[in-house]
Amino acid sequence: MADPVTIAWAPPAARYSLRTRAPQGLPPILASAPFADGHALGLGPDEWLLLLPDGTPPPVIDGLHALTDIGHRNLALLVEGPAAATLIQGGVALDLSLDTFPVSKATRTVHDGVEIILWRTGETAFRIEAWRSFAGHLHAALRLAAGDL
Amino acid sequence: MSGFRLPGRGRIDTARPVAFRFDGTPLTGAAGDTLASALLANGVHLVGRSFKYHRPRGLLGAGVEEPNALMGVDRGAGRTTANVRATTIELHDDLAVETQNRWPSLGFDLGAATNLLSPLFPAGFYNKTFMWPRAAWERLYEPAIRRMAGLGKAPDTIDPDRYAATYAFVDLLVVGAGRAGIEAALAASASGERVLLIDEQAELGGKQLGEPARWPWLTDALQTLAAAGVTCLPRTTAIGLYHDGFVGAVERLTDHLPPARATGPRERLHRIRAGRIVLATGAIERPLVFADNDRPGIMLASAARTYLHRYGVAVGRRAALIASHDSGYRAAFDLAEAGVAVAAIVDIRETVDRTLLARAKALGIELLTHHVVSATHGAKRLVGIGVAAIGAKTERRIVCDTLLMAGGWTPTVHLWSHGKGALSWDAALGAFVPEGAMEQVTCVGACAGAIDPGHGVHAEALWSPRDPTTFKAFVDLQNDVTARDIRLAVREGFRSIEHIKRYTTNGMATDQGKTSNLNGLQVAAGALGTAAPQVGLTTFRPPYTPTTFGALAGIAKDALFQPTRMTVIDGWAERQGAVFENVAQWRRARYFPQGGEDMDAAVARECKAVRAAVGIFDASTLGKIEVVGPDAAEFLNRMYTNPWKMLAPGRCRYGLLLGEDGFIRDDGVAARLADDRFHVTTTTGGAARVLGMMEDYLQTEWPDLDVWLTSTTEQYAVIALQGPRARDLIAPFVEGIDLSPEALPHMAYAEGRICGVPLRLFRVSFTGELGFEVNVPAGHGLAVWETLWAEGQKHGITAYGTETMHVLRAEKGYIIVGQDTDGTLTPDDAGIGWAVGKKKPDFVGRRSLARPDMHLPDRKQLVGLLTEDADTVLEEGAQIVADPDAPIPMPMIGHVTSAYHSSTLGRSIALAVVAGGRARVGETLFVPMPGKTHRVTVTDTLFYDREGTRLDG
Amino acid sequence: MLLIHCPYCDERRPELEFGYAGEAHIARPPKPDDMTDAEWETYLFVRTNARGRHFERWRHIHGCGRFFNAVRDTVTDRFERTYKAGVPRPGEADGWTGETGGIV
What we know:
The complex is a heterotrimer.
Chain A: E1 6-9, E2 13-20, E3 32-35, E4 38-44, E5 47-53, E6 65-69, E7 74-80, H1 84-89, E8 106-111, E9 114-122, E10 125-131, H2 132-146
Antiparallel strand pairs in A: 1-7, 2-5, 2-6, 3-4, 4-5, 7-10, 8-9, 9-10
Chain B: E1 13-22, E2 25-31, H1 35-41, E3 48-49, E4 56-57, E5 70-74, E6 80-85, E7 95-99, H2 113-116, H3 125-129, H4 134-148, E8 163-175, H5 179-189, E9 195-198, H6 215-227, E10 231-233, E11 236-242, E12 246-252, E13 267-279, E14 283-285, E15 298-300, H7 301-311, E16 318-323, H8 328-337, E17 341-347, H9 354-362, E18 367-369, E19 371-377, E20 384-389, E21 396-399, E22 402-406, E23 409-411, H10 414-418, E24 422-426, E25 431-435, E26 441-443, E27 474-476, E28 481-482, H11 483-491, H12 497-504, H13 517-528, H14 532-535, H15 549-553, H16 570-575, E29 579-583, E30 586-591, H17 599-612, E31 614-618, E32 623-628, H18 632-639, E33 652-658, E34 664-674, E35 677-682, H19 687-701, E36 708-711, E37 716-722, H20 726-730, E38 734-735, E39 748-754, E40 757-763, E41 771-777, H21 781-792, E42 797-799, H22 802-811, H23 846-849, E43 860-867, E44 879-881, E45 892-902, E46 907-915, E47 924-929, E48 932-939
Parallel strand pairs in B: 1-7, 8-9, 8-13, 9-10, 13-26, 15-22, 16-17, 16-22, 17-18, 31-42
Antiparallel strand pairs in B: 1-2, 3-4, 5-6, 5-7, 11-12, 12-13, 14-23, 19-20, 20-21, 24-25, 27-28, 29-30, 31-37, 32-35, 32-36, 33-34, 34-35, 37-41, 38-39, 39-40, 40-41, 43-46, 43-48, 44-45, 45-46, 47-48
Helix pairs in contact in B: 5-6, 7-8, 11-12, 11-13, 17-22
Chain C: E1 3-6, E2 11-14, E3 19-23, H1 37-45, E4 53-59, E5 67-73, E6 79-84
Antiparallel strand pairs in C: 1-2, 3-4, 4-5, 5-6
């Protein structure tokens, strides 16, 4: 039988924080949408995380905006499998049922005292971004909890 | 099986015997037993000694309300748990329990002498008696009292168990799986909603488990719930209810298993958010208050029924009942039908329901109405009771080994009260019941006051033919509080039930007064000459039952206690044998000892190496904020004291941040990368706070500014290279940047590449030496560090830690915010008034700097101190006085903020804040420290390289 | 743990994502230099310390990051309403009395 959940480090990625008051072609807050060769995650009313293939140079954005390279700020974990939501629910105080946290929803929140960006990439798949120095704690906490599912 | 187990009764499996040890004695029970039922099956009633008087105590209840039978459970090293109720311990093989609060043994307890001396121990006894002399309290009274009056022993080794935690979201949470709770869950089960049913017991069913006639219904109901997908969690106690449908519940996962089979977490904390909450928490029977109502063998009538029907145990051979409520008759009748002799039913009421009378008569039970139990007899087990007609002086003795008490029912409103739900007095019940609505919470069944069957009256302590000051009638069995104690408290002037509770400790034991609150209230009301509802109820607070610290901590223990932030270079430092210190949540290398060096030796070597050759330092923890947008300079100009608009791209500036009160909050160097882009650095500990403060002003005061802030603290690894050889070291690896002093002077910034990766290069110094801070994307940080380290060997490179960084900067008089400042220093106080833009119309904190108090000459100002004895390093925090012979209290004029031995200078140095300090330069002051008062000379804060020539290498 | 409605995310979110940020509707004076010391002191330190309805600032710090305002009852701990920064105090502009509704 396949593992109920797998936890894996995501490969390196290009990440940019995009800030603008004129979100042309960007998803609304708490949602994600394809962007260039990757995705844009709506984190705030004027804030998007652009997740792009590793090595992607800063995208050209029209209009008044701020773009900041944060490609190395985060590490990401891919949590996948039938028990993925159950595992993450152990440390996240948001309701992760599909009704309230559907596929493609993304938000900043907290897992067990660590600020994360939680992005549901599939019914049983999540990507969790955390600042680099917190990622080890996050990984250890998820691994420990996964053993108790 | 002993003679107390009744064949064919109960839900236990007598075909599966379970061996356990009770105070070392091997005993046998059956699968399905609790420790309490197994003890009773073995004829054991004596299960503990009381808290204060060491009186022998037996089982009062059959559930969580049990106040007497508290056990120490031993599951191996570090796995001892104190004060566990025998009624909630599921019997399992290898269970080992010890009784508590007795010495040398449960049967023969020397502490029981306190019972003979008990006239000396009234309410408030400790407060009144052990007052003088003060020193004796700590050395004599308290240790002695703690030995004599106490409960279980806390474990003294680390808990090796693991604990889990989760959040849960449901549409409906039902707390309590008795009849009302199950019916509530059934009603919702077909709706498709997420329904969660939790119960503290091992089996779902609540009191229905003690009603054999209801078992078929129970089986059907639980099957229906399972089929409907309702989640049912037994062994799960709702410990607290909070606003917005939030309930904390602890699920016990392994305590019911033999230790050898207990794998995985011991408990799981469920943090439940529910759309609706149904509280079906039932009710707890009340004891009655009369003389010596605490002997082993005296128990709640409902408990006797539970032991009979659920566990197939007769609680005695010959029982009597004292009742003020109809419900107790069921226990007497059921025991009689099971073959237990029932000597008498004593009822304080004058008239009793006809059907009860007829039933008693049919069973041949003597019924004494308008009577009380006036006395009880027996030492370690009840042997008889005295009964008297109310108002009469004559007493009659009845032989019995068990006395059942039926004082009516108290709805379990704890969770409702946690949520601040209102209560109203139900005169028929003699109890408080939930009133009105509360958010999404409703109460059902007995919890809501729907208690079946029968009626009763509600008295305070029972009438007695004897002088009530001559006997003990217990109200709170766990804290040994008597009716007399409560009356005494009222006589001594206490009126509020909250004060009476704290003075007498009634209801303050580990059971939170589950069987004593209402009786205590009735006694207090009687003494106050008022009605119970006017006296009111004390406040229930979480947790409902005692909860392990482990359950509350969850996974936050050991390495996961809290996140330990580590830089990408941390592993390298560890391999080099670095000694670490914690700075905020970061772990930072403090120094790198070599060959058995202590810290002083290592720091001296590291300092010399930086001044003589080059040092390498991991500065990655520095806070970094990228400030981007056309108004970036305008924004920084408003936030920081310094002027920013004229700073050219490619240049850096020291920035000083104040609070609006004018006091220093943070500092750091910022570089202008482009017209619309700054790279701002903050202190390590201030990073999040500074970003939050900037966001606050930006979002709420100046939302019109076109600028955005992004934390880049962790985007870059920062490698500081400091010392005369720093340029030579990095030059071979840097591309695209002219490193010459002319092209890249002190406080310049440039971008290029180093070791093939993108580089943000700051020419800055926190040591006074030629210095560079190499910022590279964090993922490349270790590789760049290792390359520079290898190349640096030919330049005499030395790795240094935070301690050396502190010494080097102190030699130059550079402040550390939070060490040399404490939230009360202005820029001028700290000697960095030059960093304040005098021509700026406004910046955060500017108006406060204009207050007259900010310019008083005797403000504490940062100065240097040199000790008379060059080898003496002052204590940081030591106070400074002008006259060491002044009478005590000696006027203190400042304190030491930083002090080190400087290997560069060959002597100690210190920074300090001193009242009017700059006008005192050259004066001699004194620093009293343990053992000696040290003479110091006031200097300015610059100890080394006064001309600043070393900055250019 | 309370649920707090973030007016930017338009969701009720757990309290642990938020930070409290003091009393609301105390704007930084546009010209601090024109204020007396007493007026400046009032701006810096004097707060209503309400028992009951309190207008206060919160930040969805571990969410969208935005500061916003809330009406909370300091006795019951209930959030009566939350609204975006810059919106006038409820009641002044919209006639809200707190008796009904509000965003919850």
